[in-house]
Design a protein that fits this description.
812 residues, alpha+beta, 6-stranded mixed barrel, 49% helix
Length: 812
């Protein structure tokens, strides 16, 4: 212990003796350790830390899967769910739910649309979540004739009810119906399944429903299911049983279930499955940054050790063993890494805030990211390992010397050994190789993101405001009431100053899932069960296509009469026309869209351009557009094209809606530009972070090669002076120094290109329209890194050309 304390005191004195060296080394390590800590805190939250549910590893989502169309994680049929619940043996319990939008009125503030879920009463018992106030749902809450009850989120309790301690038992009005609040969920609880969400937001209120015998009629898929595995049952065992059960249901109900199977997905994978590759790539990227920082500091220590050879020789001559000297040097390097880790925690704290600010809004779990005990432990381990790793090689090299030779040479030992020069060269080559891999990866992501930004969505997004209006079904139970409401709303909004056009549609592009169903074409053979064509379906008013500037390619749009009463007409998109009427004129053909209870043939009157709906990088699917009377939705999105800033008319448009019905809220008020930005948020997030780490790697590697070349000039001062004294020109000295640096650079570039060709294949799922071996990116990055390295070599080389031969000859 006394020896350790002595080493620590001596190490502190040595670090204070060289403040410039200490600051540079600590800063380099802090950047590397801080970046690793920040990314690890995200990885820990999303991939490692247990989900906030009881025995979360036993929770799974259960989806249907269309094998014929390769459509994974499809919403489920209520009838199939009832059979799963009755016949499966692998689940302890199984709950079903679907999203809803409910209008809350009668509270002090304005009417509010709340993202909600209708669920079987056992949802929270399956999840293992208990309310902090009140009670959970019971089976009686869903019994026929029972009074409506709801459970609310902690956030809704605070924001809408001011944290009222007597909230349990109070009545609220939802869609015109009174309901009693029976419970409040814990703070931080979120239940958001993006794959099936119809609202795009986590639910804030839950109400119950119960299946009846009428639900056994197989006529649609629109629900989601979560299950708790029995103790000891694995996901693979559950998948095997559910596949067998689906096979039996497929044989029993061939018309409905032909080609349909079941997928069992662990809940954690459901939450983070699509972002896991990006997180692991980012974690690897910050690991590379830390390795580059370590190589930099190791080079600094090697240079410093060369200057301390005489000191080490004297200590050895006085009886210090090699291990004793190594321990002293390692103590100094661990002190550096500890200081770097401490400063790195501060950088990580800032970095976490930046990551949360930049992250896509659907990464709901990021609000739980923090520097907690596991993260602190990770930082401590990384700091210690870093200190040992970057300090070990210089320590071993510094103590590998001939004591008598160095004592006789005196200060001439400062030039270091050939072995240490080779080691520094290896570190520089490694830095450049690692930096090149990161730069190539960032370059590929940047090019992919730029390609994504240039994709034509199929409409003009400038000056478009969107807002959602969901009418309560009880109040607007008749179809003509819904049609009249939206017609009146559009007319009023069209008269607002600055409005060029307004329209309405059932599901807006980039605003979440839509509706899809099968269809048949009149005059063609009836397809086998499960083999028929499928199309997306959108319901719109007469102005929607014009407001969005979706081009009409053939035929005509709906007439005024067709948007006020059923005339059984339909407009299709270019993809549907190409896939199912190739070589034929689709106009006048009749299709039967299986969306209504009593489907009837509809005449195709027009073909419009394709529109991207799910995302910019997803293929366009067949689409049919129905006039509103054909399927009178209660929930529609109003789109408004303006002459100027679209947000300027948002308040006026909301007032016009409430002038028709004072209890009707307006929700999801956003511009189309905002929706497009949200659709590429994950790509932007990945590109920004990896680009930042790549830039950091570029800076560190350029500093590293500059440091090595500057030190090389110091080492070779006498040699350079002799060369100049013998007639060498400045360009000869410049060529010698720069040539040595660029030789190291080219070796690093070659090694980095090999590594990049292998490692970038891991990020293929993150790229759009760009190959993982894109030659322009590889060449461009190589040239960029070489140019930066050339500049880093030129500065010390330029300094070398100004060496005075007389001073140089007396240098040692």
């Amino acid at each position: 212990m006394n020896s350790l304390l002595q080493d620590l005191r001596y190490g502190v004195r040595m670090l204070l003796k060289k403040p410039g060296f200490t600051v540079i080394a600590v800063l380099a390590l802090a950047l590397g350790i801080g970046a690793n800590t920040a990314i690890f805190s995200v990885v820990n939250t999303l991939l490692i830390r247990p989900l906030p549910f009881r025995d979360a590893d036993r929770l799974v989502m259960v989806w249907e899967y269309n094998r014929i169309r390769d459509n994974h994680q499809n919403v489920i049929s209520p009838a199939n769910f009832m059979d799963w619940r009755e016949q499966s043996t692998v689940f302890e319990d199984l709950a079903a739910f679907n999203d809803a939008r409910l209008n809350l009125t009668g509270v002090a503030a304005d009417p509010l649309e709340i993202p909600a879920q209708r669920t079987t009463p056992n949802l929270f018992s399956v999840l293992g979540v208990e309310p902090i106030m009140g009670r959970n749902f019971t089976a009686e809450d869903a019994a026929p004739g029972s009074a409506p009850v709801v459970i609310i989120s902690y956030a809704l309790w605070q924001s809408r009810f001011g944290g009222d301690p007597s909230i349990v038992g109070k009545n609220i009005t939802l869609n015109g119906t009174s309901a009693t609040i029976v419970g409040v969920l814990p703070a931080g609880f979120q239940w958001f399944i993006k794959k099936s969400s119809l609202t795009g937001n986590p639910a804030e209120l839950w109400m119950t429903f119960a299946f009846t015998e009428q639900d056994r009629v197989r006529r649609g898929r629109f629900m989601s299911a979560v299950a708790r595995l029995k103790p000891g049952v694995t996901v693979a065992q559950a998948q095997t049983e559910m596949s067998a059960l689906s096979g039996r249901l497929e044989q029993q109900y061939t018309d409905f279930n032909k080609g349909w199977g079941t997928e069992v997905i662990p809940l954690r994978e459901q939450f983070v499955g699509d972002i896991r590759p990006a997180l692991l790539i980012l974690l690897g990227a910050v690991g590379f940054v830390l390795l580059i920082a370590c190589a930099n500091v190791a080079n600094l220590l090697l240079a410093r050790a060369a200057a301390r050879h005489r000191e080490i020789a004297i200590r050895t001559a006085l009886g210090a063993g090699r291990w004793r000297v190594i321990r002293q040097l390692l103590t100094e390097s661990v002190l550096l890494s500890a200081l770097g880790g401490g400063l790195g925690l501060l950088f990580a704290w800032w970095g976490i805030g930046a990551i949360i600010a930049l992250s896509p809004r659907d990464l709901a779990s990021l609000d739980r990211v923090s520097i907690n005990l596991p993260v602190l432990g990770f930082t401590l381990v990384v700091s210690l390992l870093t200190g040992i790793i970057f300090g070990l090689a210089p320590a071993l090299e510094a103590t590998r010397l001939n004591t008598s030779e160095f004592l006789k040479e005196g200060d001439k030992g400062v030039a270091g050994t050939a072995r240490s020069r080779r080691l520094r060269a290896v570190f520089v080559v490694s830095e450049i190789a690692l930096a090149l891999v990161l730069l190539v990866s960032a370059g590929l992501l940047l090019k992919s993101f730029m390609r994504l930004q240039t994709v034509n969505p199929g409409f003009e997004s400038d000056n478009l405001l969107t807002m959602r209006v969901a009418l309560p079904g009880r109040k607007y139970s008749e179809e003509y009431q819904r049609i009249a409401f939206f017609r009146q709303a559009i007319e009023r909004i069209n008269h607002l100053p600055g409005v060029e056009s307004a329209g309405a549609v059932s599901f807006l592009p980039f605003a979440g899932p839509g509706s899809a169903t099968g269809f048949t074409i009149e005059g063609r053979p009836t397809p086998a069960p499960g083999q028929g064509p499928v199309t997306d379906v959108r319901v719109m008013d007469i102005n929607y296509l014009r407001t969005m500037n979706i081009p009409l390619l053939k035929g005509r749009v709906f007439t005024e009469q067709e948007t006020t009463e059923q005339r059984h007409v339909v407009i299709i998109n270019e993809t549907l026309a190409r896939q199912h009427f190739d070589g034929e004129d689709p106009l006048g053909k009749r299709v039967t869209v299986m969306m209504s209870d009593k489907p009837v043939p509809s005449e195709i009157i027009g073909v419009v351009g394709d529109v991207k709906h799910a995302s910019l990088d997803s293929p366009v699917r067949p689409m049919v557009y129905w006039p509103h009377p054909e399927l009178a939705h209660t929930s529609m999105t109003i789109v408004v094209r303006t002459a100027g800033d679209p947000t300027s008319i948002a308040a006026g448009a909301a007032r016009e809606i409430q002038a028709i019905d004072p209890d009707q809220p307006v929700s999801d008020v956003r511009t189309m530009k905002q929706l497009l930005a949200t659709s590429v948020a994950r790509a932007r997030f990945n590109t920004l972070l990896l680009g930042l780490f790549a830039a950091l790697a570029l800076v560190l590697s350029s500093v590293g090669i500059y440091g090595v070349m500057a030190y090389s000039v110091v080492q070779r001062t006498k040699e350079i002076g002799i060369r100049i004294a013998l007639g060498a020109q400045a360009r000869d000295v410049l060529k010698m120094i720069v040539g040595h640096g660029m030789l190291l650079t080219l070796a690093g570039v070659g090694l980095g290109l090999t590594g990049a060709l292998i490692l970038t294949r891991l990020m293929s799922s993150l790229l759009f329209g760009v190959s993982t071996t894109d030659p322009l990116t590889f060449i461009g990055v190589s040239l960029l890194l070489s140019a930066v390295a050339l500049f880093a070599c030129y500065i010390p080389a330029r300094r070398a050309t100004k060496v005075d031969p007389m001073i140089a000859l007396r240098y040692e």
